[in-house]
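Exercise 7.
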Amino acid sequence: MIDDDLARLRAHRDNIHRYRRLLCTQLSELERQFVQKRLAEEESAFEASAAPALPVGLFSVKSQTANVNTGARP
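Solution. The predicted structure, written as tokens, is:
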């Protein structure tokens, strides 16, 4: 059970990192919208999966997203 939960969290984390890297590349507006939508979905899924497993304040996915939108590195 715990291994499955951790694997799910890692998969969401990896997808979030992948989408953030994609947003730093040259994309058409349609592609950018798609990636931003998927990123938001992955962040929500990560938070929903992590909420029961991790203490509050241990992770902050949303704060790192702001860095991607401005072009800053986390």
